[in-house]
Structures are given as C-alpha cells and as structure tokens.
Design brief:
The protein is mainly alpha-helical. It has 21 helices and six strands.
C-alpha cells in the first residue's frame, strides 16, 4: 500500500514540473474552472509529497547527499570516507553543501506542508489530516532549526497567505516552545472516529492509523523535550512527563516510508541512491568507531549491516575505516598510512541487505523513544513524576534497536533471543548510564541512516565520546562541528533578518558555532 502512494507521488511530481514549465497559456490555466484550486484540490496528495520530501530531495538526493551523508554521518564517525569532496569527514567548510538542506527543505518540505495545514483548516472532513499536517510541519521545521538554530518558522511557507516575503528568523527557544505545543495539541485532537487520511505513506492501511499518529506525535514531543535537557531542564522534565505512557509501545509503531525503485528517481531511497553511485560505492565505509563498538560487544546487528567488498558479512572479518584520511598520497594523510591498512576492500560498507533503492527510510522508531526515556530517567532521577527505571527503558530500547530491521529485508531480521542474549552480556550500569544509553542511540541512528538525528543527539548528550580528527586546513581548530552556517544567499534575499540572526549565533555563524539548545 505504501508503494502505491509513492508511485502516485512520482507521477504527481512529474505533472507539477510539466505544468509549471508550461507558461504559454498562463492566463487560461489560472482562470480555468476545471483546474485545481483550494476548493477542489485533494489535499492528501500534499501529505504524501511532504512525507516523501522529508526523506530527501526529488533532485537526486541533493540535500541528503550533502547534509545527511557528506556532513552529519561523518561528523558523528558513523560513516567514513576518503572522497575529497566529502568535507564533513575532515571538518572543512563547503558553504554550498552546508546550505543545501535549507535551500531544498523550505520549498520542497515546508511549502507543501504549510499549504496542507491551510487547506485543511476548519474542515471537518479533514479533521485528522489537519492534525497530521501540524505534526509534519513541526517535525520538518524542528530538523531545520536543529541544523541551523534561529530560522524562519512562524511565517515559513505562508507567503501566499500572509504576503510576508521576508520572514523573520524566530528564536530557537520560541520555535521549540511552539513545536512542543503543536505536537501535544495535534495529538490530543486526533480522533479515531474521524477521517483516515489516504495519502499517508507512513501508516496508511493500518487499522489503528490514527492511534499510531498519536504515538508518533508524543514520541516526537518526547524528543523535543529531551533536546532541552541542558538549556532548560525544567521545561524538558515537564514536557517528557506529559508523554509518559503515550509514546510508541513496540516496533509495530515505527514510522517509516517504503520507497519504490520502479517509480523513477523521485521515489527511490535517497541515501542508497547516493551510496550506490561512484565514487561512493567504493570509497564510503562504516567508520572504525561504529564497527569497533559492535565488534567489541558482539553486536548481532554487525553481520546484518556490514559487508566487505567481496560480500563477506562474517562479523569477525568486519573492519571500520578511520575518519580523517584521504587519497592524497601524502604520508600521514593518505589512507594507506592508517594503522592496519590492507586495502579499501578490507573496510566494511553498508550491506546489500540495507543498501537497496526500495529500502525504507525510518522516520522514528520505538527504540529511539525508549532510549530517550532511559536518558530522561537517568538524567533527572526523581525529577519526572511517574517515570520508570532507566534500566527498563534501556533494555526495551536496545532490544527494539536490534530487532527492528526486518522492513529492510527478511534476512535482516534479528531474533528476540539474540537481543536478549546481548542484553544479558551487557547489562545496564547506572554508573555509566548516560554513556551506554546514548552510545546505543548513536548505533541505532547509524543503522537507520538518520545521521541528522545522530548528530543532534550527540550535541545534546555529549555521547558517545568522539576523538576529533585532525586534518590540515580544518576550520574548527580540530573540534567536532556543531551547526551548519546560514546560506550565504540569505544575505541577498532576506538581508535584514539574516544579519540579525547571523550576528546572534553563539560562537559565530560557523561550523563551530552553537544552536540555542546546545549549551556548553
């Protein structure tokens, strides 16, 4: 059923491109009573559009390639590469690449979801679709804000409705307060007895579709609350407390979109579209940090997620590539200088069980929710009324993170017994709780390829502990980057609001600057 909607969206997107290109009969197209308009347009298409766009650009994974892979994945030492233009691996600044997410997300994600909110407002037939649109809008803009800080939020995507064409950059503190409000209000307003959106590529066809959206909304609210754990502990605790018992309860609640490799370029998995190309297919590997963690702990996920160039998925043979090397031929910098180097083919890459054009993109998982609750229980002992034991949430989260991968491939499924054995061998320790919890979160976001979230959670929690790379010419003085600078184009297109935000960034509008919630 999900594939059906993704295929339809591919055709719909192509139609939009063709129609917007045909300007010869502009007046007729805009006065034709049979043309689409707010009174006859089917808004479910906009939901599918926004959901698919959230997984990556229609334009050959433009911002996914640059933001999620080139930068976030390597900053977190989840992936590693020697490809020269992968600037994140070396803490170098490519301003076009760090701007890519902003440049693509506002027109391809924010605009359709803003239209969806407006077109379904105060319409009983779209009661649930409207609330889902609110959740999607908050989720989309939360990621943009997590990457850049203060960003256009309240007026984002609303130029047609408000005539505001130079939106202010709302303070991230204000953005987060409204995002949390949106998640909660939308979750409360969702009504199982009302409409069941047909354009939903996450949960359509599930008999409990609306209940699952409620759980997703509260899980997203939990994540938003957790983001504030350093900068505003009181709000973090109050927000998390409101989500208790309402978040995802099993892997059956996981939100993901299944891609369609037969629908053409707009409908395939964005990450794997990049990783199957060249030079990525030969020179992008799992990092030494991730593979060493999994090998040391006999992680049952290792032979599922990793393989060598010859297809060998034997756990003992896997080897992660260190970050911060290149193909320059310069001693100490070239990958051949790395300790234990025996050739590129000896380093592990994402396995064929995952690396498929029709693989799912995971949006949020039960494992994430439980690990966030574990973090909250460990971080705020006695501070959140009704919260359970950190060890219980940790066990639930790790087990879920080990056993959730069947949607990639039936052969990627890992048994409950294997997960239980792992937990028995690696019991939760309160003395090292935050490290254990957030290192597992790091491993989970790597395997689900949400490197944006891995980076955000690391900035919030400080775990896992990373040893920064030291590469000649890096722009962060050898520290792991903490935000994306604003797009330089904003200085020309929205100069006054850009300058105000640019000048206010803690630490400067640099890779080494910080967003508001990233308190030192």
């Amino acid at each position: 059923m999900k594939n059906k909607f993704v295929k339809l969206l591919g055709l719909f997107s192509a139609t939009i491109v063709l129609c917007t290109a045909c300007t010869k009969n502009f007046d007729e197209l805009n006065t034709d009573p049979t043309a689409y308009n707010p009174t006859n347009f089917e808004p479910n298409y906009l939901l599918t559009t926004a959901q698919l766009a959230y997984t990556g650009s229609f334009d050959f994974s433009y911002e996914t390639w640059r933001g999620n892979l080139i930068y976030a994945s390597t900053l977190m030492q989840q992936l590693s590469t020697v490809v020269g233009y992968w600037a994140g691996d070396k803490y170098l600044l490519n301003a076009d690449y760090t701007a890519a997410y902003w440049i693509v997300a506002y027109p391809e994600q924010v605009k359709p979801v803003a239209d969806l909110v407006e077109l379904t407002k105060d319409k009983d037939k779209y009661k649930n679709l409207h609330q889902i649109a609110r959740i999607m809008r908050a989720m989309i803009l939360q990621r943009i804000s997590d990457l850049y800080g203060d960003v256009p939020y309240s007026a984002a995507g609303l130029g047609y409705y408000s005539n505001v064409y130079f939106p202010v950059y709302d303070k991230q503190e204000i953005i987060y307060k409204d995002i949390i409000k949106e998640y909660e209000e939308a979750a409360i307003a969702l009504d199982p007895a009302a409409d069941k959106p047909t354009g939903d590529a996450f949960y359509n066809g599930k008999p409990d579709q609306i209940e699952k959206w409620k759980k997703l909304a509260y899980s997203l609210m939990l994540r938003a609350g957790a983001r504030l754990s350093k900068i505003d502990p009181a709000t973090a605790q109050a927000t998390i407390q409101k989500t208790l018992g309402k978040t995802m309860q099993s892997n059956d609640d996981n939100a993901y979109l299944v891609h369609d490799a037969t629908g053409g370029r707009p409908t395939v998995n964005r990450n794997f579209q990049v990783l199957q190309g060249q030079p990525e297919a030969d020179y992008v590997k799992w990092s030494q940090k991730l593979i060493d963690f999994m090998k040391t702990n006999n992680d049952p996920r290792l032979p599922v997620i990793a393989e060598l160039a010859n297809g060998d998925r034997t756990a003992a043979n896997q080897k992660g590539m260190p970050n911060g090397y290149d193909l320059s031929g310069v001693a100490g910098r070239d990958i051949s200088s790395a300790p234990g180097y025996t050739g590129m083919g000896a380093y592990s890459k994402p396995s064929g069980l995952l690396n498929k054009l029709n693989a799912p993109t995971f949006i949020f998982t039960y494992g994430e929710a439980e690990l966030l609750l574990a973090d909250a229980a460990a971080r705020f002992p006695g501070g959140i009324s009704g919260i359970g034991a950190a060890s219980t949430y940790y066990n639930n989260g790790v087990k879920a993170a080990i056993t959730y991968m069947a949607p990639y491939d039936a052969a990627a499924a890992i048994s409950d017994g294997a997960a239980d054995a792992y937990l028995t061998a690696h019991p939760y320790s309160a003395a090292d709780g935050l490290n254990m919890i957030n290192t597992q979160y790091f491993a989970l976001t790597a395997t689900m390829f949400d490197f944006y979230e891995g980076w955000s959670n690391w900035r919030r929690s400080g775990y896992p502990v990373l040893t920064p790379v030291v590469y000649p010419g890096n722009v962060t003085n050898g520290t792991v980057p903490r935000r994306f600078p604003y797009p330089l184009a904003e200085a020309n297109t929205n100069p006054t609001n850009y300058k105000t935000a640019h000048d206010a960034v803690p630490g400067g509008d640099l890779l080494s600057g910080r967003v508001w919630w990233d308190k030192p």
